[in-house]
């Protein structure tokens, strides 16, 4: 028997297996009731024609997926699709943001599970109407993450997916990272709070070597280790498409700041990254000095988050020198460090005399006294570029309260661009906390009030029962 004959036999065997599978599918179809049969046939036509681009076909695909998997319709998914269907009656929508967050008390009491992820995969694999998915605060494990990874491989229209604060680890993260090898449409990926560890971090470092479309990657609070951090920093030396990276709170067992040093070297040569979050990196003055040395060569980074580290006045002095050079930096977050008065004075000097580019500064909880805060207040009078300032958690006295009260009353500081508000008691001025500060809606967003973000679904005010107590006049009875 020749090799060609062997290939022919193998091909015939494969065709026979496929034929048997097709026959089994037909037998299953004949066992369904007419309604289920019509539903499944309809969605197959949609998939073949590639026209699943509106809410009607999406709902049809969802119903058919439940029939195909022989499961009951997940109530949360069904309700959100029905909500979108009703909204389309009022106003036509070209695309859909599928909101399935598990922390909305009025929309659901049951969270998305791995089985629900399979229903989503069957619904969206050929869908072009849903462009973004919000799955935060659910109970998706490695199995569900692997299903979502497969969805990202086959779907060519999803641009954003948020899976933060679920229950998957390294294997699930690897599955999602491997999907990025072939995916060419996803732009935003948020995995914050999933303990992927070194295995998941290394998988994303490898993916960033291949993927050229992802623009924002959030893998903070994910138990990253020193090995994968160094790998990420090394890969980003060449990557030109990623614009935002979050690597907050890694698990570091070193005091030599090796990961920080690698990221600072990357900043010197990287020309695409605009936003970098490095909270809780155990960064000291050495790391801040290394950032200062390399930031002078970078004019693309606009947002630097060094919150919750151990930077003191010496590191702040070097960062202030960078501000004097008017680099591209627009947002600097130094909250929860150890700047104290001297560090605040260094920043005030740079802001008041040289800097014209910084727009937002966060120095909350830095043990800054009246001397440093008054210097910052004086710098505001000279600097017109700085529009957002957060100073709560420091030491206020009468002079500080009076200085910032004048900026608030003159609208030099707008109400939504600071975390303080002034009030007067017995002729004396005080400052109070007015809001959560920077990145207010990162972990949580309200569903009532004026602070509801655009992506959050507003809650409905529940009408309370009317408890009326009858009032009777007993004077006549007496």
Kindly describe this structure.
With 478 residues, this protein is of the alpha/beta class. The chain is built from 15 helices and 13 strands. The strands form two sheets. An eleven-stranded parallel sheet has the order 1-2-3-4-5-6-7-8-9-10-11. β6 (244-246), α10 (258-269) and β7 (275-277) form a beta-alpha-beta unit. The longest helix is centred in the N-terminal third of the chain and has 29 residues, at 3-31. Keywords: Repeat.
Secondary structure category: alpha/beta
CATH class bucket? Alpha Beta
Unreliable sequence segments: 1-7, 16-36
CATH topology type = Leucine-rich repeat, LRR (right-handed beta-alpha superhelix)
Average pLDDT for all residues: 88
Q: In the CATH hierarchy, what is the architecture at level 2?
A: Alpha-Beta Horseshoe
What portion of residues belong to β-strands? 5-15%
| Helix run count | 15
Keywords: Repeat
Protein name: Leucine-rich repeat-containing protein 34
Pfam families: LRR_6
Region (Disordered): 1-34
